Amino acid sequence: MTLLLSSTIDRTLTHWVAERLAQPQPDLLWQLWCFEGLAARRAAEQQLAQLGVRARIHSAYKPLVHAVLEDLDTAGLQSLHLHYPLHADAAPNRFMLEAYPLAAMLPPGAALQMQAGQHNSTYDLQLHYQDGRSHKLRVFAPNRAFQSAHGGSGITPCGWQQAHNDEGELVHDAALLSDYEAAYAQAMQAIAQHAWPQTEPFFGRLHIAMQLPGFEQAIAATGETMSTPEAMHEDLYFSLLEHFQKLSGRAAGDRRLQPGQIVPDIRMAAQSQPLELQVIDLQIRALPLSEPLPEGHDRLPPAAFSPNNIADADTNAAQLQRAPSLDQMHALVQPLFDAYGIACSSQSVQGRSIAATYKKGSQHPVVLSGGQHANEISGVTGALRGALALAQQADSHFAYIPIENPDGYDLHQWYCRYAPEQMHHATRYTALGDDLAYRDHAPWWEGAVRRDAVAASAAQLHLSLHGYPAHEWTRPLSGYVPQGFDLWTIPKGFFLILRYHEDWQPQAEALAEQVALALLRVEGLPEYNRRQLALYQSHSGRQPFALRHGTPCTMQVDNDGLTPVSLITEFPDQTVVGDALVFAHTVQRAAVLAAYAAWQDIVQTR
Hints:
By secondary structure, this protein is of the alpha/beta class. It has a domain at about 310-605: 3-Layer(aba) Sandwich (Aminopeptidase), CATH 3.40.630.10. The protein contains 15 helices and 25 strands. The chain has helices spanning about 10-20, 40-50, 65-70, 95-100, 100-105, 180-195, 230-245, 310-315, 325-340, 375-390, 405-415, 445-455, 505-520, 525-540, 580-605, and strands at about 1-10, 30-35, 55-60, 75-85, 110-115, 120-130, 135-140, 145, 155, 160-165, 170-175, 205-210, 215-220, 225, 260-270, 280-285, 345, 355-360, 365-370, 400, 460-470, 495-500, 545-550, 550-555, 565-575. The chain has a nine-stranded mixed β-sheet, with helices on both faces. A four-stranded mixed β-sheet has the order 1-16-12-15. Strand 6 and strand 7 (about 135-140) form a beta hairpin. The longest helix has 26 residues, at about 580-605. The model has no long low-confidence stretch (mean pLDDT about 95).
């Protein structure tokens, strides 16, 4: 174990309140923007007011959404006209995205119009009510300039303070380095300055433990939760991928990078009062993969499954309301392996077994897999249900890989024990830190099984089941919108991606068409897609994909694919549990069965 950093960072809110109290200025109205929740901000305002200091403390994270929640009366609202700011170093829709999910927060029937405003830092709102009232509001959105690891420039949310005198004149207006920003900067600096080896992987596991006074706030009736711990996890993880890509001489976004396993461990510190905590604790350690991560939270015993046969396993799988543990998955897939055996197998980097089973039938074969990205849980559960359903068709012909990335899946289970409703993108890739589908050299480790399953079955279609965030995905300390993943920053319904060899385009097009048609018959899915697409379009201002019968779909030439055609499904599943997860893997199952049935006719006519 190598300790890279052990540090405490003064809490901005505590320090700022103390500073105001040390020099009371009753003729000034102070304003602060920081990364704190409503309870802490209001408690600080009250503490200041008791001693005669006028102050208003705002959220620097999603300031417009917080302003609507905290400062606006939306009862009886007839319409809201929003002018969002523009900035030369930000995408034109950057502040539209930051306003998400405003369109879902308004009362039924209230009209929302969003249009580009001025090149400044403020949202301008005009509200009209059914009783004839009108109201105007300006919301400041503080941002500062930043540079990415690969030299790109942009703007990103930040702390800020202002003061106005009794005449309303602005007498102080400046950025303020908040504790949240400082914690991110210290972590990145400590890792950047460390003397890493010259070649990948640079470490076994990089554990970044942080306890901070964050907040998680649900937004009523939207399914969205604003979470500063989750946002820190996301920003650290992807910023570190970018850092190590540059260190390794790779291009930005190169998924072949093998830095090791990056584990941001971001938790809200326990406190009985909103202002009790005064510091952020930060510790960074480079660990061997053999050293376990700290638990520090209760581990609930998973429900036991003991299916006697494939039909029993199918019944059990249909009821899954949480991501099954590795042991549960082993029990649920065992009837398939008992019936058809192990077609090919390998070991993961951390020594977990991974195998494919193969049912040889008279029809045209497909390969079915889930869990390439281990936090995309409807892909795992949907592939399981699809395989169990196909197994009960007499002539079906398929190879099935239950979880392609078991090391990432185990890490996902670790995260779920203390933060089950976060996205956990640090579990997306393997223990080497790469995306196994992009691995291009031996040792193949877990990546060997997909290759061997395609070879064993001679399949010309791969069904790879995936998911993406079910709520907004942000990187609030490096530009807000996730770089390279801007298409996936907010949900847009069940999504199909077709990748194909150039000369297989007609077959890929036919498959997309037939699967999209079949999805119209899935109960609840057309309405679900319509709702999500409407919200996506309201806040993105664009639609960089086609719609096939109401299902978003993209087509991509990929002449290096292991099979001539690959169908990748994407359900917004990260963070969903309960009935929402049952719906997600029911949709995934339906897509598997539709694609399999369509493929039989499509290949026949080639």
